[in-house]
Amino acid sequence: MDKSIETAYIIREGATEEPKPKTEKKETPVDTKQAEKDSKELFEENPPHAEEAAQAAKVAADKRAEEASQGEPPPPELIGHIVKSWLEESLKTLQDKGIKAYSDKNILSYLNAITKGKHKAIAAAVAQLDKAQSEAFVKKVQEARDMA
Question: Coil, strand or helix: which one is 48?
């Protein structure tokens, strides 16, 4: 056997054939001028439809952004940890039903006692509530709404 050719024997029961020797591949020389010409044709500076494709992509992205902005309502305005519109609506509902405990004066007094402040507006007092105090206040107002 020629030592310059790599050979391997497969050892298995009943195997008697030698595997075929590996053949070396000959490299063909590369024509660098032709390769440069081919790459210039494939990767033009300004391909014929590049501007149209870029414009179409921009229009599609703008459309998706517009659809996304229309689908989502704006985030609610908060006073501290409480949604402002919910609080205003809830207190108005309770006051319209004549529940004196939820008059502006009584609510402000209650919130000033909790926050240990001397606020002149409900919103200012609510803004000073921490998260736990806000949750307790919302629960109290919601329970009153449910009972009213």
Answer: coil
